[in-house]
Amino acid sequence: MELRIFTEPQQGATYDDVLAVAKATEDLGFDAFFRSDHYLVMGDGDGLPGTSDAWTMLAGLARETSRIRLGTLVSSVTYRYPGILAVQVAQVDQMSGGRVELGLGTGWYEREHQAYGIPFPAKRFGMLEEQLAIVTGLWGTPLGETFSHSGEHYTLVDSPALPKPTQDRIPLIVGGSGPRRTPALAARFASEFNIGFPDAGTLDARLGLIHTALDEAGRDRASITMSVAHVLCAAADEAGVNRRAQAIGRDPEQMRRDGFGGTANEVVDRLGELRDKGINRVYLQVLDLHDLDHLEFVATKIAPQLA
Asked: Any idea of the CA torsion for 267, 273, 276, 281, to the nearest 10 degrees?
């Protein structure tokens, strides 16, 4: 099972804070470092020192790491025009030597749009469908040819479709809880379907929806990676679990029930259950970016048991 580190820098982090986590991610043997793509703190925090742009930050990390995959979980279609997004992601892919992945979604946090003057249409699913078609179309257009698109939301005319990413195909991540349209879109475009923060007892149903969509699209179920994201809160003993839960404002029992919480053996058992259901990649959401010992604990006490 692949273990990826997933962070939320909008809650308050400098570039150096995030860089330290990314370097620990690489040094400790994790598969990838991902970050959210948000512009406003959530909850009661002040968000100091302020917001950061996901793809600007990933560009920096691309030059300061050498092995780990890098990406967003997930970028919102409301933030960037698809042509510009394709340029940004391809450029960061070049800067990283071909290590970038793009998670793309409809967006949901209206307050951050209001705070930074970003339009937030009531209906955004059509924007997501078109953006996925455009970015893949731009990246896949042969050199010397042009790409055009005429849709309800976007029109591109004779784009040179440059620059090209280093990878032949940048992995695309689609996720969400929609019962039909989102799984169908994932079956059409995605290399990974992500189930974010599932409550206890809902995972089987959500897996069933994506399996049905893949079958209806005539796509092999094994051709798409199934992943889960959840909050990490692990420690050597009960006192440590409680301390880390308190530091991030979470209930330790809820972390055990739904997230990746508890002692090493408890988290290993939880991950084993997910693997038995066909989940082969997990995103460990690290909320306290200054607790690098948390990552080391997973790398030394949990990951070896999954080998």
From this structure: -40
Query: How many domains does the chain divide into?
Result: 1
Question: How far, CA to CA in Å, does 76 sit from each of 17, 91, 117, 150, 191?
Answer: 24, 18, 15, 21, 18
Query: 0.90 exceeded by the pTM?
Result: yes
Q: What pLDDT digit, counting tens, does each position of 72-127 carry?
A: 999 999 999 999 999 999 999 999 999 999 999 999 999 999 999 999 999 999 99
Half-sphere exposure of 75 (CA within 13 A, CB side): 28
CA 266/CA 235 separation, integer angstroms: 10
Q: Measure the CA dihedral 18/34/137/148, to 10°.
A: -40
Q: Are 170 and 100 in contact (CB under 8 A)?
A: yes
Structural domain for 114, as ranges: 2-306
CA 125 – CA 198 distance, rounded (Å): 21
**In CATH, what number is assigned to the domain containing residue 291?**
3.20.20.30
